Automatic annotation (TrEMBL):
GO terms for cellular component: membrane. Residues 235-252 have a biased composition (Basic and acidic residues). Residues 26-478 form the Major facilitator superfamily (MFS) profile domain. The lineage of its organism: Eukaryota, Viridiplantae, Streptophyta, Embryophyta, Tracheophyta. It comes from Dendrobium nobile. The chain crosses the membrane at residues 63-80, 92-109, 115-136, 148-171, 177-198, 291-310, 340-358, 365-383, 389-412, 424-446, 452-475. GO terms for molecular function: transmembrane transporter activity. Residues 229-252 are annotated as: Disordered. Keywords: Membrane, Transmembrane, Transmembrane helix, Transport. This is Major facilitator superfamily (MFS) profile domain-containing protein. InterPro entries: MFS_dom, MFS_sugar_transport-like, MFS_trans_sf, Sugar_transporter_CS. It is found in: Membrane. It is a multi-pass membrane protein.
Length: 493
């Protein structure tokens, strides 16, 4: 009997190669994209009042500027996820960078309110590609310390929020909102400059049967990290699927299609993939995970963006509701930038908290605990407080909700197999954007109309239900290897 050839998986290779220079480049590249997304989202805290004043907008028209961005992100998160899962991670984030940087800069020149709303919607479509970069970065990180490193990745979001608050504080009082839009679009251009140096995910390549391409990426990683790959042949845990092809079969099939002139059939098949990806997420083995994740992302995003927008809403709203006397607009604006900047700093301890507990107590318990602590910090806001007390409560709430949404964003791509990872995470992220769409219209609208009690109770109800959904998540992913197929995606407890 002949000897059985040794094999190793992508996870085995990543563990052998460790976290080195190669992963550092991947982390910085994807992190810049994440910071750029945060900056575009944080803009919504600053430009609303300025645009409202310039074009005499109603409160609902002002809220729509925020909501259309999240509506675009809702469309983009699913769309770019499907592109990424079917055509590669690199193609997914290339198009997101092109759309975000291009349209973001063009929105600077919006001649009227309608044009601004349209431009910001398409900026949102580009920003919806954030989950693609998260999945791409995740697939290069070794399993044992994946949680901690993905928290480091999330640190770039906080850098983006703090940078945007600083830019607004420096630019808005003198140069105005158009300059803020222009400068905030610059980080997305950096992605295009260094795009040529970015590798495709070896896990994605291996899952698609392109093992030789995956091996070349892993060999490049080994050279940069100055480590050796395991001995044997690269393999995948992916089960054979009768609809899948190896590389040679794919080439032969492509030639046959070309000769037969079946381009229309191929185009239809590619469209069916989009529907098929969603169908896989709702298959019996994944439907519980998918539905609970959708609820988890909706509640976390509603609360996260709500805390951001409440910071500006309470800064203006408390004085408006409690006094009819006029205030100096410049002074109010300064208070707004200061309050948003201070609460943005809360993301740093929030990420530190997440990094400390995510690989110790697990993803599920981390998210649930931080959600219920957020609940306790927002509850006192049903009463009017001094500015310092309100800012302190929002600061603490933002620490916890930042840690919660960061940990949930690690759990989501971990729980899905490679074949639907970007689509699954992107779709869940889309439900988060629904929360972002509703939040400015409903919750912040209540604050603007002086219904503070109703707004806070709405937040509390959503946080409580989200915490229950997290507790019901099917299994923990702490320390589990990423899986390639649905059949192998269940991690033992």
């Amino acid at each position: 009997m002949g000897e059985v050839a040794e094999t190793y998986t992508v996870d085995d290779a990543l563990i052998s190669l460790g976290f080195g220079k190669f992963q550092t480049f991947v982390l910085i590249y994807s992190g810049v994209a994440y910071a750029a997304e945060a900056m575009e989202v944080m803009i919504l805290s600053f430009i609303g009042s300025a645009v409202q004043s310039k074009w005499n907008l109603s409160p609902h028209e002002k809220s729509l500027i925020s909501s259309v961005v999240f509506a675009g992100m809702l469309v983009g998160a699913y769309s770019w996820g499907v592109v990424s899962d079917n055509y590669g991670r690199r193609k997914g984030f290339l198009f997101t960078a092109l759309v975000t940087s291009g349209v973001g800069f063009l929105s600077t020149f919006s001649p009227n309110y309608i044009a601004l709303v349209i431009f910001r919607f398409f900026v949102g479509v580009g920003l919806g590609g954030g989950p693609v970069l998260f999945s791409w970065c995740l697939e290069f990180v070794p399993a044992p310390n994946r949680g901690a490193w993905m928290v480091v990745f999330s640190f770039f979001w906080s850098i983006g929020t703090i940078l945007e608050a600083s830019l607004a504080w420096a630019i808005m009082p003198t140069l105005g909102w158009r300059w803020l839009l222009a400068l905030s679009s610059l980080p997305s251009f950096l992605l295009l400059i260094f795009y040529a140096f970015t590798p495709e995910s070896p896990r994605y390549l291996c899952m698609k049967g392109r093992k030789s391409d995956a091996l070349r990426v892993l060999e490049s990683m080994a050279r940069m990290n100055k480590k050796a790959l395991p001995s044997g042949e690269l393999t995948s845990d992916r089960k054979a699927d009768p609809q899948d092809f190896d590389e040679n079969t794919q080439r032969a099939h492509a030639e046959q299609v070309h000769k037969a002139g079946s381009s229309f059939s191929e185009d239809v098949a590619s469209k069916v993939k989009c529907v098929g990806s969603l169908y896989k997420l709702l298959a019996p083995k994944l439907i519980r995970t998918t539905l609970l994740l959708w609820m988890g992302f909706f509640g976390n995003a509603f609360t996260y963006y709500g805390v951001i927008l409440l910071t500006s809403g309470l800064s203006d709203g408390n004085s408006k509701c409690r006094s009819t006397t006029s205030h100096n607009s410049t002074k109010e604006g300064t208070h707004l930038y200061k309050d948003v900047f201070i609460t943005s700093l809360a993301e740093l301890p929030g990420l530190f908290l997440s990094a400390v507990i995510v690989d110790r107590i697990g993803r599920k318990l981390s998210v649930a605990t931080m959600l219920f602590i957020t609940f306790s910090f927002l509850l006192p806001l049903i009463f009017h407080h001094k500015e310092l007390t309100t800012t302190a409560l929002l600061f603490c709430a933002r620490i916890c909700i930042t840690g919660s949404i960061t940990t949930l964003s690690i759990y989501a791509p971990e729980i899905y197999p490679t074949s639907v990872r970007s689509t699954g995470y992107g779709t869940a992220n889309s439900f988060g954007k629904i929360g972002g769409i509703i939040c400015p219209i409903v919750a912040v609208g209540l604050v603007d109309d002086c219904h503070l009690l109703a707004a806070v109770l709405l937040f509390e109800g959503i946080i409580f239900l989200t915490g229950l959904a997290v507790i019901l998540f099917p299994f923990e992913t702490k320390g589990c290897e990423l899986k390639d197929s649905v059949e192998s995606s269940i991690c033992p407890a």
